[in-house]
Design brief:
alpha+beta
Length: 69
């Protein structure tokens, strides 16, 4: 969920069934802001708080990656 205003461009924001703002996911589950050629965030300076707090390589990161198709 996007709980703070970091300036995420509207084209990367989705609204869930409860009316909350979330990062847009593509049909395959990947974040719409990810550049798949470079595997870098295209909105890094404006990324949401959860992305700022989510430490790359952490146990949580590894668990999320396991769930990807």
């Amino acid at each position: 969920m996007l709980i703070t205003d970091t300036g995420v461009p509207d084209r990367f924001v989705a609204v869930d069934k409860w009316g909350g703002s979330t990062m847009l996911r593509l049909d395959d589950g990947w974040c719409a802001a990810l550049d798949r050629d470079t595997m870098l965030c295209t909105i890094y300076e404006k990324r949401p708080l959860i992305c700022r707090e989510f430490r790359m390589g952490s146990d949580e990161c590894k668990a999320e990656r396991q769930d990807l198709p």
